[in-house]
Amino acid sequence: MSIIVNLDVMLAMRKMRAKSLAEQVGITEQNISLLRSGKVKGVRFDTLEKICAALECQPGDLLEFKPDVDTE
Question: What range(s) does the HTH cro/C1-type domain occupy (predicted)?
């Protein structure tokens, strides 16, 4: 099972840079980069809430579930 992070898509749709988002959310640009790459194990709800507010989106716009394909 995989969770796909679509933060890049939302940033592009809103024509916003990661640096601006980081400033609005109150986290480092490095943490935004880690979120964008999907290299995080979790995200705090308050951080997710701030990201959604800044991007005017829903959590489901940022996160997508894709089940692994069984190859037997």
Answer: 14-62
